[in-house]
């Protein structure tokens, strides 16, 4: 109070023109939303490895199409039925053609008079099909089922949820009742009906998934949208006269991304398991095609004696799921504006 | 609020009516007859039996009769179990399924919340990764595989629990775990995600600044807010679990409704299919209404629509 | 740190639950005193014998109730309620004298009237019995089923309380065997009327006159108990005090229960049977059911005999039963199951065997196939094989598909596995190309099989027609029905015609592999009719 600092115009000095402008400049390069997301995804090692694993599996599964087709799947060799894995040059019990039969390791290849140069890397199933071949094909089918379900989730489910939550009132009411009705009709009834209209197999399964898989996503999205609707930035956008479509795309979807991604990560196993469930009750995919669900179900029946028939497909499924989930986590962190720090 | 409730109950009835109608007509499209030995029956016998089951009447009449019966709790007579009323069949089978479903849900949600919270608090550490991987594995293994493994290793090899059958609490442990791992994994992941979001928000910073302990913050602020997306999920999930899991009931030889339902679909037991579907649907719409109400309670930001317009 | 408190709490809760539960499980252990713990793989739908249609119901009725005869080992006729039987010289009239010491579990005596009432009830169309067709041949039965005559005209009369007279329209050589089948057992009118619509829907809504009484069956549950019936006339020869049934739909579960001693018998699936093939406890129950291919002969391609023969010749049945099924099923010799029926010491299936009917000869098959295609004027043939979604059905179709596609050039096979009821519906409507069907004999006579393929039989889904076959079957029922040898030869001849023409292609005769604890003795299993008879069973 006592001492007043005396400021005179001389105390101030004008900056050179260039520096003045520079000060306002953003140091980091300007990135689009996607570029930024990709940059952050790259920093997440787990997600990157998962991405790699998924791409690899897809390449193997879909790339196998010219080699593993109807003709090769249909060939059976019952004389080689139920052989355990035998990999050349691997002397580990369980991978050298030996199987534990009532506590002792028995060379099944010798017992069944299989020629010495015959190797099944992951063993064979009850018709003597190579299990490795079946798993690759099964992965492909399961991936297709998963992708179809994801597609309906991301399009129908998300759009439905946003519209329902955003519009509210009567529209919301009607849309929610429709969801209730759809999720009340058991999907098994739908599948059985598909069997008369279509043949058992992929088409029926996909149709059933298309009808019922997206409802959970729609409900989750609606719930979140209801919440986001009253957030300040949405209100601001509304006040500024932004069109609903733009608000949905620019504000809602990015903020919903964590829910969307997590829910998708659950849709994928749910779809794969639905297909597996159908094979559990015997009306899944039809021979000679197969899926991871069919293989798991076959393996589950003989688990006490031929554990490898369950373990191998289970391991593949688990790896696939873990990869999908870690990637999902990474994507979520990358896309969600809230985690951008 | 009362007006809102009345309105919702009206919608509930409307939904149930729609489900009944759709299922009824879908059922009529299903191939085959309920008789397992039709080819050995005379035309006269088939005609008389159709009359007894009311299958000879025009479809609209069958539909009206069915709706009428349903109004006073008569769901018809099962085809598969000769002369057995469907309501009795459902009543005698639903108990085991419901108990199992609720136990599995409690097991899954409670453990899931704990694991999810721990993961969120320790996010981006090895604890987080461990929790994530565990919950992913839980969700990635189909429950019939898990059930077979539990039965073989825990029940047969270790002898800790009964292998199968239905009786006292010990019989329910393995099926509960097999059934509860799904909700557990899902809950854990949702809680973790929700909580990470919440923990980053400003009011948590404030709470931290006020000197609240880490778990105090989690308990008082973060948990409540991250429960919201979970509520949407848990409701329908519980109904689905309570109305039976065919797979688990099959593997553990449990006299539940899920297994019976699949069987009735495969044997064209129309009245049973309808009965179970209606039960499921009633449970579902009721739980959706309840979640919507709970919503309003735990998140004051959500206005119950309907009271407004 | 707060985390520990949190974690500890959770851990304690989980552990204590586990511990408590573990303690609880020890208290239940099965006692071994003349109590049998039996596996079952389907639920019990009814014990109303007029309405029973399935194996479990018939098995249960066979042990809780009793008819004029009991079927012993190898379907041998043993005394039941009847003590004496006289047959008229033309074979159309049976007079049974009933024992006076047979009682219902409510204390009433079992009388001839109970038989009359029961039979009339089953045949009456309004009862809706799906097994009433077995009564065909008994006087007026067909007309009653068609609603043309009243049930009281049925050829069964009670003369007093202990004499029963049955009149037939035509001679039924297997009539006595039928009397051992539950559909022909007596029913107490008092009980049927007392329980009304609840009759037979739970163990308490039924009366019993057999070696055991059914208890603990609520009508929908998955376990029940057969308790020794102390009112049974021959109770001194019934040694078991109880048989506990438990339904396990999963073979894996049943096997685990068996391993831990909770079950004395378990059904095995194919894979389990293969693995247990050296076990001393393995008991293979050969059933009188044959699985066969039916060709839809309303379609041009399957009217061609060479095509049918080629398909049949290409199937390596031996490999199929041994390597793929492996449950003890055997290669079918023909339509009629082996071991079903004997005449002069010779098995019907051996007598009627036709060379190549179920053999494998790929070279010959290819030749016939190419000739067949040429006759049809086509280069390739695609068709679909229909089957149901059972474990064996799911194994059969892929196998057939691979066998046919690999060996027959130009064959394109798709497979369709649908639920059992849907399969029946499609078969009946002729909505198939080739279907895997199965038939199990209701009684131990070849006619039970051969009747299926007469031109107008509703089970002849493929519409195979052969006038000579029809004539032979008709002759066996009419002109030759009195002469055992002639009738036998007619039937042998008929089967040979069917096989030579490959009207159907038999694949395998089903067997059910089971494990039975070696302490279990005296269980009788018959391949046709009701399977299990526990009257003489005991535990050593």
TrEMBL record, chain A:
Keyword Protein transport: yes
Topological category with respect to the lipid bilayer: Multi-pass membrane protein
Residues passing through the membrane, by range: 47-68, 141-166, 178-198, 204-221, 266-290, 310-331
One term under GO cellular component: plasma membrane
Residues in ABC transmembrane type-1 domain copies: 139-328
InterPro entries: BP-dependent_transpt_permease (IPR050366), MetI-like (IPR000515), MetI-like_sf (IPR035906), OppC_N (IPR025966)
Main location per the UniProt record: membrane
PANTHER family: OLIGOPEPTIDE TRANSPORT SYSTEM PERMEASE PROTEIN AMID (PTHR43386:SF24), OLIGOPEPTIDE TRANSPORT SYSTEM PERMEASE PROTEIN APPC (PTHR43386)
Annotated protein name in UniProt: Peptide nickel transport system permease protein
Record family assignment: Belongs to the binding-protein-dependent transport system permease family. OppBC subfamily.
Xref: SUPFAM superfamilies: MetI-like
Keyword rRNA-binding: no
BP-aspect Gene Ontology terms: peptide transport; protein transport; transmembrane transport
Compartment(s): Cell membrane
Keywords: Cell membrane, Membrane, Peptide transport, Protein transport, Transmembrane, Transmembrane helix, Transport
Automatic annotation (TrEMBL), chain B:
InterPro entries in alphabetical order: BPD_transp_1_N, MetI-like, MetI-like_sf
Superkingdom to which the source organism belongs: Bacteria
Annotated compartments: Cell membrane
Source species of the chain: Liquorilactobacillus aquaticus DSM 21051
Annotated protein name in UniProt: Oligopeptide transport system permease
GO biological process: transmembrane transport
Membrane-topology annotation of the record: Multi-pass membrane protein
Residue spans crossing the bilayer: 9-27, 100-121, 141-160, 227-252, 272-295
TrEMBL record, chain C:
Subcellular location: Cell envelope
Claim: Signal is one of the keywords in the record: yes
Domain Solute-binding protein family: residue ranges: 76-460
Pfam families on file: SBP_bac_5 (PF00496)
Keyword Transport appears in the UniProt entry: yes
Protein name: Oligopeptide-binding protein
Single GO BP term: peptide transport
InterPro entries to which the protein is assigned, alphabetical: Peptide/Ni-bd, SBP_5, SBP_5_dom
Top-level lineage group: Bacteria
Keywords: Peptide transport, Protein transport, Signal, Transport
Segment forming the signal sequence: 1-21
Entry similarity comment: Belongs to the bacterial solute-binding protein 5 family.
A GO cellular-component term linked to this record: outer membrane-bounded periplasmic space
SUPFAM superfamilies according to UniProt: Periplasmic binding protein-like II
GO molecular function: peptide transmembrane transporter activity
């Amino acid at each position: 109070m006592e001492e007043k600092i005396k400021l005179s115009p001389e105390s101030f000095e004008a900056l050179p023109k260039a520096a003045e402008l520079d000060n306002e400049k953003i140091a980091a390069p300007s990135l689009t939303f996607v570029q930024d997301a990709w940059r952050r995804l790259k920093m997440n090692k787990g997600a990157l490895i998962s991405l790699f694993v998924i791409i690899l599996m897809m390449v193997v599964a879909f790339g196998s199409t010219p080699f593993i087709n109807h003709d090769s799947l249909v060939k059976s060799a019952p004389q080689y039925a139920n052989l355990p894995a035998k990999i050349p040059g691997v002397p580990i019990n369980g991978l050298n053609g030996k199987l534990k039969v009532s506590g002792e390791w028995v060379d099944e290849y010798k017992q069944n008079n299989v020629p010495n140069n015959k190797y099944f890397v992951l063993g064979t199933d009850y018709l003597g099909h190579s299990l490795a071949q079946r798993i690759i094909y099964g992965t492909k089918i399961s991936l297709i089922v998963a992708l179809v379900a994801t597609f309906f989730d991301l399009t129908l489910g998300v759009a439905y949820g946003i519209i329902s939550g955003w519009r509210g009132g009567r529209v919301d009411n009607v849309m929610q009742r429709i969801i209730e009705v759809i999720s009340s009709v058991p999907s098994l009834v739908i599948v059985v009906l598909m069997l008369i209209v279509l043949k058992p197999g992929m088409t029926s399964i996909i149709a059933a998934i298309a009808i019922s898989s997206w409802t959970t996503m729609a409900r989750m999205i609606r719930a979140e949208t209801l919440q986001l609707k009253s957030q300040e930035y949405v209100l601001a956008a509304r006040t500024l006269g932004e069109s609903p479509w733009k608000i949905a795309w620019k504000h809602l979807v990015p903020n919903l991304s964590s829910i969307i991604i997590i829910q998708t990560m659950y849709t994928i196993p749910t779809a794969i398991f639905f297909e597996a469930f159908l094979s559990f009750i015997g009306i899944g995919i039809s021979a000679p095609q197969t899926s991871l669900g069919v293989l798991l179900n076959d393996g589950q029946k003989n688990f006490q004696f031929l554990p490898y028939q369950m373990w191998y497909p289970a391991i593949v499924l688990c790896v696939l799921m873990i990869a999908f989930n870690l990637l999902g986590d990474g994507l979520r962190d990358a896309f969600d504006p809230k985690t951008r720090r | 609020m009362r007006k809102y409730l009345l309105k919702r109950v009206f919608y509930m009835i409307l939904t149930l009516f729609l489900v009944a109608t759709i299922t009824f007509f879908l059922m009529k499209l299903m191939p085959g007859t309920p008789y397992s030995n039709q080819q050995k029956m005379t035309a006269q016998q088939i005609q008389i039996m159709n009359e007894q089951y009311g299958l000879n009447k025009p479809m609209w009449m069958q539909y009206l009769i069915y709706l009428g019966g349903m109004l006073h709790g008569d769901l018809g007579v099962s085809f598969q179990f000769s002369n057995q009323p469907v309501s009795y069949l459902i009543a005698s089978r639903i108990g085991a399924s419901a108990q199992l479903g609720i136990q599995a849900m409690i097991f899954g949600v409670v453990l899931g919340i704990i694991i999810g919270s721990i993961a969120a608090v320790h996010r981006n550490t090895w604890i987080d990764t461990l929790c994530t991987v565990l919950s992913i594995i839980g969700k990635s293994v189909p429950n019939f595989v898990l059930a077979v493994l539990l039965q073989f290793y825990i029940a047969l090899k270790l002898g800790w629990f009964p292998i199968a059958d239905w009786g006292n609490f010990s019989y329910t442990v393995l099926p509960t775990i097999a059934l509860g791992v799904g909700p557990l994994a899902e809950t854990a992941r949702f809680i973790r995600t929700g909580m990470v979001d919440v923990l980053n928000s400003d009011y948590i910073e404030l709470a931290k600044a006020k000197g609240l302990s880490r778990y105090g913050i989690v308990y008082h602020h973060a948990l409540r807010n991250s429960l919201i997306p979970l509520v949407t999920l848990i409701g329908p999930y519980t109904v689905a679990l309570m109305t039976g899991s065919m797979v688990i009931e099959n593997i553990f030889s449990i006299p539940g409704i899920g297994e019976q339902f699949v069987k009735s679909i495969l044997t064209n037991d129309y009245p049973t299919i309808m009965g179970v579907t209606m039960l499921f649907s009633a449970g579902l719409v009721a739980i959706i209404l309840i979640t919507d109400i709970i919503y309003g309670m735990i998140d004051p930001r959500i206005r119950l629509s309907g009271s407004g317009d | 740190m707060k985390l520990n408190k949190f974690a500890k709490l959770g851990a304690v809760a989980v552990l204590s639950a586990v511990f408590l539960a573990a303690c609880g499980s020890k208290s239940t252990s099965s006692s071994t005193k003349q109590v049998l713990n039996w596996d079952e793989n389907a639920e019990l739908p009814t014990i109303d014998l007029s309405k029973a249609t399935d194996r479990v119901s018939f098995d249960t009725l066979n042990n809780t109730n009793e008819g004029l005869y009991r079927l012993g080992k190898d379907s041998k006729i043993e005394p039941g309620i009847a003590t004496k039987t006289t047959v008229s010289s033309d074979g159309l009239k049976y007079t049974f004298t009933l024992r006076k010491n047979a009682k219902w579990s409510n204390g009433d005596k079992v009388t001839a009237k109970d038989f009359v009432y029961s039979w009339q009830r089953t045949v009456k169309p309004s009862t809706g019995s799906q097994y009433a067709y077995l009564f065909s041949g008994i006087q007026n039965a067909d007309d009653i089923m068609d609603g043309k005559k009243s049930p009281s005209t049925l050829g069964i009369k009670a003369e007093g309380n202990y004499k029963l007279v049955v009149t037939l329209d035509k001679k039924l050589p297997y009539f006595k065997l039928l009397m051992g089948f539950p559909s022909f057992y007596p029913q107490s009118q008092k009980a049927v009327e007392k329980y009304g619509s609840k009759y037979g829907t739970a163990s308490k809504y039924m009366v019993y006159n057999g070696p055991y009484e059914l208890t603990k069956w609520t009508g929908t549950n998955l376990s029940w108990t057969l308790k020794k019936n102390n009112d049974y006339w021959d109770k001194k020869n019934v040694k078991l005090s109880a048989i506990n049934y438990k339904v396990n739909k999963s073979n894996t579960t049943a096997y685990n229960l068996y391993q831990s001693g909770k079950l004395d018998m378990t059904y095995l699936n194919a894979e389990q049977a293969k693995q247990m093939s050296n076990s001393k406890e393995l008991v293979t129950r050969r059933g009188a059911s044959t699985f066969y291919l039916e060709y839809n002969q309303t379609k041009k391609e399957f009217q061609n005999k060479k095509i049918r023969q080629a398909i049949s010749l290409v199937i390596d049945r031996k490999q199929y039963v041994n390597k793929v099924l492996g449950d003890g099923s055997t290669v079918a010799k023909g339509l009629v199951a082996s071991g079903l029926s004997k005449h002069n010491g010779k098995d019907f299936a051996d007598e009627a065997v036709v060379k190549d009917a179920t053999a494998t000869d790929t070279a010959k098959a290819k030749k016939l196939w190419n000739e067949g295609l040429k006759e049809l004027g086509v280069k390739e043939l695609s068709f679909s094989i229909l089957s149901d979604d059972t474990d064996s059905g799911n194994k059969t179709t892929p196998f057939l598909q691979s066998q046919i596609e690999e060996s027959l050039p130009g064959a394109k096979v798709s497979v369709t596995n649908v639920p059992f009821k849907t399969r029946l519906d499609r078969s009946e409507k002729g909505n198939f190309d080739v279907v895997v069907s199965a038939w199990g004999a209701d009684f131990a006579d070849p006619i039970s099989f051969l009747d299926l393929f007469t031109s107008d039989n509703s089970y002849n889904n493929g519409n195979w027609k052969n006038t000579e076959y029809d004539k032979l079957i008709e002759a066996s029922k009419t002109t030759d029905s009195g002469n055992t040898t002639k009738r036998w030869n007619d039937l042998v001849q008929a089967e040979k015609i069917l096989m030579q023409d490959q009207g159907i292609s038999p694949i395998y005769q089903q067997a059910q592999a089971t494990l039975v604890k070696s302490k279990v003795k005296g269980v009788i299993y018959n391949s046709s009719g009701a399977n299990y008879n526990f009257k003489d069973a005991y535990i050593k």
